[in-house]
Amino acid sequence: MAEVADLVVRQARSDEVRRVGALTVEAYRAVGYPGDGGGSGYATLLADAEARLRSAELLVAANREGCLLGTVTVALPGTPFAEISRAGELELRMLAVAAPARGRGVGELLVRAVIARARELGLERVVLCSPAALSPAHRLYERLGFTRLPSRDWHPGPEVQLIAYTLDV
């Protein structure tokens, strides 16, 4: 992955939360999600990186110049951003890669950072849920060893189906 050799994954800083929120919203809208133009309130949640910084771990991938290329939220069970995780699991949420950085390994770098974090914390697995229509993300997860976890699939809204994945670490 020579293309990510100059990138670093680190904790987001408080002075970056607006940029992280905007990057997240733009990345999700680029793939047609949320499809309602944000009417469900999910776009507002995606934009609120400050809340993720306070209540979860907010990671960013940045180049040497400090340009943010991607982000992911890491949540423990029972915390405000956890949706499907249980004891012994770390939950990967809101993975987003800036449009100019797509296809360069940024998403993989961020997912691998979450896996490493789960190991550091001594947890058993990483779990996540993803919109059913997001097949490029699903291919990434499956390539990294994640398997489907249909028992935790769910519908946060009438027209939204989220499918779950798990990886033992």
Automatic annotation (TrEMBL):
Keywords: Transferase. Residues 7-168 form the N-acetyltransferase domain. Gene3D superfamilies: 3.40.630.30. InterPro entries: Acyl_CoA_acyltransferase, GNAT_dom, NAT_camello-type. GO terms for molecular function: N-acetyltransferase activity. Transmembrane segments: none annotated. SUPFAM superfamilies: Acyl-CoA N-acyltransferases (Nat). This is Acetyltransferase (GNAT) family protein.
